[in-house]
Amino acid sequence: MQYKSQKIAWYFFAACMGLFGLQLIYGFILGFDRMGYDVLHDWIPFNTARATHTNLLVVWMLTGFMGAAYYIIPQESGRELWSTRLAWIQYYSLLLVGVVAVVGYHFNIWEGRKFLEIPRPLDYLVVVNVLAFLLNLFMTIWKGKNKSTTAMVLFFGLLMAALLYLPGMYTFDNIVHDSYFRWWVVHLWVEGVWELIMGAILSFLLIKLTGVDREIIEKWLYIIVGFTFLSGILGTGHHYYYTGAPGYWLMVGGIFSALEPLAFLGMALYAIAMARRGGRNHPNKLALMWTIGCAVMSFVGAGFLGFAHTLPQVNIWTHGTLVTAMHGHMAFWGAYAMLILAMITYVLPEMTGRKLFKGWVPEWAFWLSNIGMIAMTGAFAVMGVAQVYMERKSGMDFLEVQESLEVHAFGLVLAASLFTLGIVLFIRNFCAYGRPNDEVLEA
Amino acid sequence: MLTKSAAKTFFLGGTALCSIAFVLLTMDTLAQFPDRSNQENMTPAVVRGNHIWTKNNCMGCHTLMGEGAYYAPELTKVMDRRSPEWIAEFLKDPERMYPGRRKMVKYDMFDPAEVGAEEAKKNVDDIVAFFTWVGEIDLNGFPAEPDLAQAPRAQAVDVAPSSNLAKAPVYFSTVCIGCHSVGGQGGQVGPALDGVASRLDAEFMRKWISDPQSVKADTTMPDLGLEGDDLEAILDYLATLKE
């Protein structure tokens, strides 16, 4: 760590840990509901738990990206953050909005549009909040000594993410219309600009951890984010097959989303190749493990499992089944959760001066969470495929099918327990590091 | 070998090209929406139904056009399976219709005992209008007909005037028929009721319909609170179903 103001990142990461933990609790409520133990139904019905689970995910990931940006941008620009005070205001207001939204869900106050449940007045606050964040980054880059490619790609990614939030604030009386623009936010975030953010953070980590020349890493960064947009933008079409849009989207969405795994494969090969090439023997091996793990698991979860149901002739059967949950869980884990955990694992020793990346706690955190997530994905796959064949292909009654899947939901909850154990260890290690201090500042 | 500036050009060029294509396709798509979704049939009732749907985050459990949370049934074609009367009865108190099974939130706006008969009926009519409109949207063939099906799917019944069912009271031919069948028409969740009067005596049927759980604690037969004229009409009708 070189600049005092980078310390703010730690507080964002601490919030991440808290929100992530809470997300897992709601995940268990959903898992138990699916097992048939919906004992909380009267207080936290499934739709409340589900909206809370997914929104906490989005909030903690955005918080993580912001923390990463507050660390990376000063470092790359060679100066202190433009305004630490603005960053603090932004931090508390973001958390406030997140908490108010989630509490509201428990009282039937929401918009009822998947992933974008935050009610309208809070949307405006989010916009103001993100504008403050972007202004801070922009001024830091603008007044900084260097304008590195990594910083620019990261800023561009965050800016586009902010702009793409706007179409989701439009609502239409016609649900076909509404659904069309809802995907502009959801898809173009996670399969578009978030990957830009991901690419930039990955390249920052690879530069720091492998010691490979910045020019080479950044060149490949361009190629990979190029492929991301080439496939991802028109790949939005895979959400338009069966939601009222014209038939040509079957062709456009099918072809371009079939290319999406290539971007993720590129990302994985790039991370592995750079790590092999790197001469620097960075002591924080665990951060490199999370970094490469992120690139590999995002290919499996987002690339491969996404492809598994992206073609229209498959999707006609799998659309709106648990197959989507199978893909969703590993995709978010691999691409974004592991990325933020990699960043945290790299940043904590830099910020606190303690080197707690060796030993059983952080290492088992990595392995247990990953094994748990793979097992969870397996459980979802079994449930999803069984649902497709029983309900969609054979025409069995929905509830009958769901009741026959309860035993697999038990498997899901077991796998989730393993995953949670890993995350608990990660959070324990996070706490063991303590707060950042100024004594570790590099001259 | 590729230079960094060539890589940058590839990124910017590819992104610009795809974005332009995406915007053009979007413009064409938006122009087709009114026709594909039959926007002219979007009555105020449909719009109100849509607001009920979103305001209560129904897609937090159900799916509609395949979008939602996979915890409750897909409802795009629900009007092919259920009659408006069945939906009204179900929404009054969902847990009563499916005792002991996966739960749905009870919304007071559909319960005449909470908001009055008129308001409850209006809300049910709105949500039914919404589902009816959604069912007509051109979804490129979604949801597909089950291609491995052995038994026909549950369907709302179109009663032939000559059949036995034509003589049934409305409650029977709209609600009971969701699970039971007569003359091969109706649902397959509960047993077929042809000849039921030859198998069961009238007193038993009265007790069974009024309070099924008192006869068999774990039955999935719902206690719909039938009494008075409705109950008598159904019992009278069942008494005619002899072998």
Walkthrough of the structure:
The complex is a heterodimer of chains A (443) and B (243). In chain A, α3 (84-105) runs antiparallel to α4 (120-143) and α9 (285-307) runs antiparallel to α11 (323-352). By secondary structure, chain A is mostly helical. Chain A is globular. The N and C termini of chain A lie close together (9 Å). Helices cover 76% and strands 0% of the residues of chain A. Chain A has one domain: Cytochrome c oxidase-like, subunit I domain (Cytochrome C Oxidase, Chain A, Up-down Bundle), CATH 1.20.210. Chain A is built from 14 helices and no strands. Chain B is mostly helical and 243 residues long. Chain B folds into two domains: 43-138, Orthogonal Bundle (Cytochrome Bc1 Complex, Chain D, domain 2), CATH 1.10.760; 164-239, Cytochrome Bc1 Complex, Chain D, domain 2 (Orthogonal Bundle), CATH 1.10.760.10. Chain B has helices spanning 4-36, 44-55, 78-81, 84-92, 94-97, 112-115, 117-135, 170-174, 196-199, 202-210, 212-215, 228-239; strands spanning 63-64, 67-68, 181-182, 185-186. Chain B has a two-stranded antiparallel ribbon with strand order 1-2. A two-stranded antiparallel sheet of chain B has the order 3-4. In chain B, a hairpin with a 2-residue loop joins β3 (181-182) and β4 (185-186). In chain B, α2 (44-55) crosses α7. The termini of chain B are far apart. The mean pLDDT of chain B is 90. At the A-B interface, α2, α6, α7, α8 and α12 of A face α1, α2, β1 and β2 of B.
